[in-house]
Write a structure and sequence with these properties.
The complex is a heterodimer of chains A (451) and B (338). With 451 residues, chain A is α+β, with helices and mostly antiparallel strands. Chain A has helices spanning 2-25, 58-74, 88-96, 112-117, 125-130, 135-138, 141-147, 169-174, 184-194, 244-259, 261-271, 295-303, 343-355, 357-367, 374-378, 386-397, 414-424, 431-449; strands at 47-53, 78-83, 103-106, 148-149, 152-153, 156-168, 196-197, 203-205, 289-293, 309-312, 328-335. Helix content of chain A is 44%, strand content 12%. In chain A, the strands form 3 sheets. In chain A, strands 1, 2, 3, 6, 9, 10 and 11 form a 7-stranded mixed sheet that branches. In chain A, strands 4-5 form a two-stranded antiparallel sheet. With 338 residues, chain B is mainly alpha-helical. In chain B, helix 4 crosses helix 9, helix 4 (95-128) runs antiparallel to helix 12 (240-255) and helix 14 (288-298) runs antiparallel to helix 15. The chains are: A alpha+beta (451), B mainly alpha (338). Chains A and B meet through helix 1, helix 3, helix 11 and helix 17 of A and helix 2 of B.
């Protein structure tokens, strides 16, 4: 009796283990995706597709819904079930559960390399070709940089963020500075001129705060402003081999030491919570120069309409002066899960979102972002605004993309981020050795992700 | 547990005629449900059994299984069984693992004793109040009813370097710290928040203190024992079971400390989302479960995160056993066995 029971138990456990392993393995394999666009989008069987998006702000959700309503009016066979407020983790869970949406709109390309390598999302390159869309002549190079991985077009760009230097013209004039700096040494000199210290050493106004964790500064350290590629041709990091990384960190540290680390700590702690409101440091004159995104133009127009400021490309390391003019770009990505149920219809909807000029203008205007097609950029009415014009100039000149997306997703960024913070805090006595060590660590993480 | 002289703590009938009688009576009572048709019994039990299997045993079994695989959530790559590799990687090649372990142990070592001591002191003061004790008990208890996220956000606002607390400190001539934005002060800020919300423990201690035999306290007072000695020699020993419960649950909770740190890290860092800011500032708020969350839901390393979860369970289980053994809290066997 006991033997029979134990045998039954073994059968149950085996079945459970098998079901678990089957559950795990059925999420594996590759999709046999039809590499063609819809033959005739005007006549098609009625189809409902699920579109998930990170979007949660009511005005953005309304814009998406309105766009899909327009799409349905034009193509009555297509119904879109729009689901807002979904992040990469929710998407990954849905994929693992075997019920991914047909389209997923992510807030960033952080996991594009991972999703692409793991076969989670589709290479839409063949679909674009079938639809006679040439990515190189449709989307600016900067956007292709973060939507491609291993020569595959694993996502479509949908609006982007561009980062540049904001500078206070009035304070510049008072300090006798004629224009924005173009190199990091000029930036340091200008920042010191613009800094106001009280008699007790307290900083009343900062010229520029470079600390990694202030506002969006983490994008300063991807290599865009040191003329550095994060990976070499063999796919290994250049942290240990390219001396410009150490120079970049030395620039960071020099300014922090100039103000005093405790002063910078207080500044970061106080103003990081106000980066998007009326009390932000740049709008209130607590800092004369700021590294920020294009949406800040809209915020400043509301919060500090009388502020006289300019926008320019962020300065670069002196040896890389020839690369001056570009910036950092990164934005929303449209994914097509490789095992979606309606691949062609999903691509059709995604293509409309990514390339429809009217929709891109409408959404870009709503969220103060930059449109991501050449057509939308050239016909955008914001071009007449000098701030937007400067930002778009930076965008179109952006070539160096910093740390590209990798198969390890955001995991590979952690050692580098940690090293920067340790160095800023004075916890890295031997920087060259630390750079080599961190480079090797990131290489190991990337290699493990590709196993 | 004892319901009569003939029944032991374990509920088994003791020997002797009275015991046998009680046993027969118990058997007769137990025979009742046996007459109920088993489909009816199964029907009534099934919601629990199904729930247990689906939401208890299956996830636990799956977690243990995944911990031995390289399964990555959302990936269509084949899943391999990797043996103990995830466990080995955890302790040998992950920097963040040891950072999170250090931070978690810091909280266990600092937060749990401080919170227990503070709650004990507050309860002691409350039981000595002659007037308004109910009002003060309410004042102490209400913060523990505030949702964790809301209280974390409130503390972030209050402890902003330019916020009201530092403003008050400034008026007293004290240069306030950066609190949640400063790696040195981030964990102490969480401790402050935990002390503020310790009302549930205060209420439990207060109730236990009211159960301390009054005659003992009065006798000690007649013998000339002061308040401190009465507390140390009478009240505290009487509170031992409650103290043990509170400390043990506190240790278990702190090993799994997550929400407060997640909110504090994310919100203290302005623009960046919670996922990007896990552990901010400078990994000072990276606790075991936040690192586990990051591995599983940010890096999608499900197998690795499962190994971390299994390891955490084993550590908590071992810590509980050690704790109970050290403090002699294992219920003594009525027959004198260890």
């Amino acid at each position: 009796m006991r033997r029979q029971r134990s045998r039954s138990l073994a059968v149950i456990l085996s079945a459970a283990a098998l079901s678990v392993s089957v559950a795990a393995c059925t999420s594996g394999g590759t999709a046999d995706a039809p590499a063609s666009a819809l033959a005739d989008p005007t006549a098609h069987a009625a189809t409902t597709i699920d579109v998930w998006s990170f979007t949660k702000l009511p005005n953005e959700v309304a814009a998406f819904k309105a766009s899909f309503d327009d799409l349905r009016a034009q193509y009555p066979w297509l119904t879109v079930n729009f689901v807002p407020n979904k992040d990469d983790a929710a998407f990954a869970k849905a994929v693992a559960a075997g019920s991914p949406p047909d389209v997923f709109i992510a807030d960033s390309s952080d996991n594009l390399g991972k999703f692409c390598f793991d076969g989670t999302v589709l290479d839409v390159g063949p679909y674009l070709a079938a639809a006679k869309i040439d990515p190189a002549t449709t989307f600016p190079a900067a956007t292709l940089g973060y939507t491609r991985f291993d020569d595959k077009q694993c996502g479509l760009p949908l609006l982007t963020d561009v980062f540049a230097l904001y500078y206070n013209k009035k304070l510049f004039a008072e300090a006798g500075i004629s224009g924005p700096p173009k190199t990091l040494s000029e930036l340091t000199a200008d920042a010191k001129k613009l800094t106001v210290k009280a008699s007790d050493g307290t900083v009343k106004r900062f010229g520029f705060v470079p600390r990694w964790d202030f506002n969006l500064n983490r994008s300063l350290y991807g290599g865009q402003f040191s003329g550095t590629r994060f990976y070499d041709d063999a796919g290994r990091t250049t942290l240990g081999s390219d001396p410009s990384w150490a120079q970049l960190l030395a620039w960071d540290r020099e300014l922090i030491d100039y103000y005093g680390a405790p002063q910078v700590q207080t500044f970061v702690g106080t103003y990081n919570a106000h980066t998007d409101d009326a009390n932000n440091a740049f709008a209130t004159g607590k800092v004369a120069m700021d590294f920020n995104g294009e949406w800040h133009i809209g915020e400043l127009a509301e919060q500090a309409p009388s502020l006289d400021y300019g926008i320019a490309a962020f300065p670069v390391l002196d040896p890389a002066a020839a690369t001056y003019g570009g910036g950092v770009a990164g934005g929303t990505v449209i994914y097509l899960p490789s095992r979606g149920k309606h691949l062609q219809e999903a691509f059709f909807a995604a293509k409309q979102l990514a390339t429809d000029t009217a929709f891109l203008h409408k959404l870009a205007g709503l969220v103060s972002n930059v449109p991501t097609t050449f057509d939308a950029l050239s016909s955008w009415d914001q071009r007449s605004d000098p701030h937007w014009a400067a930002m778009m100039d930076v965008f179109t000149k952006t070539k160096v993309l910093g740390k590209p997306t990798s198969a390890s997703g955001t995991e590979g960024s952690l050692p580098w981020d940690t090293l920067i913070q340790d160095y800023e805090a004075g916890r890295t006595p031997d920087l060259p050795a630390a750079l080599k060590q961190v480079g090797a660590k990131i290489d190991a993480i990337d290699a493990q992700a590709r196993r | 547990m004892s319901t009569g002289a003939a029944v032991t703590v374990a509920g088994r009938p003791a020997g002797g005629p009275a015991g046998r009688l009680a046993g027969r009576s118990a058997r007769r009572r137990r025979r009742g449900p046996a007459h109920t048709p088993w489909p009816v019994v199964a029907l009534f039990v099934s919601p629990f059994v199904v729930g247990l299997l689906l939401f208890g045993l299956y996830p636990i079994g799956a977690t243990v299984y995944y911990s031995f695989t390289d399964f990555r959530s959302g990936s269509y790559r084949p899943v391999h069984v990797v043996g103990w590799a995830n466990y080995v990687d955890l302790v040998t090649s992950s920097d963040s693992f040891w950072v999170s372990v250090r931070n978690t142990l810091w909280m266990v070592a600092v937060l749990v004793p401080l919170r227990t001591a503070f709650a004990l002191f507050a309860a002691w003061v409350l039981t000595r109040l002659r007037r308004g004790a109910a009002i003060y008990r309410t004042i102490f208890f209400v913060p523990s009813m505030v949702p964790v996220v809301a209280s974390a956000l409130s503390f972030i606002v209050m402890l902003n370097p330019a916020g009201p607390v530092n403003g008050l400190l400034g008026r007293l001539g004290i240069d306030g710290p950066g609190w949640f934005t400063d790696p040195t002060w981030a964990k102490p800020s969480l401790v402050l928040m935990a002390l503020w919300a310790c009302g549930d423990t205060v209420v439990i201690f207060s109730a236990a203190m009211l159960d301390v035999p009054r005659d003992l306290l009065e006798a000690a007072q007649l013998d000339g024992a002061g308040a401190g000695r009465r507390f140390w020699h009478i009240t505290l020993p009487a509170l031992r079971p409650v103290l043990l419960f509170s400390t043990l649950t506190g240790v278990i909770y702190t090993f799994q400390y997550f929400t407060e740190a997640f909110v504090a890290s994310g919100s203290a860092n302005g623009l960046n989302s919670g996922n990007q800011s896990l552990g901010y500032p400078q990994q000072s708020l990276l606790f075991y479960t936040t690192d586990l969350y990051r591995q599983g839901f940010v890096y999608f390393k499900t197998g690795y995160a499962s190994a971390a979860a299994v390891l955490l369970f084993l550590v908590i289980f071992a810590a509980t056993l050690v704790f109970l053994r050290v403090f002699g809290a294992v219920a003594p066997d009525p027959e004198g066995r260890a």
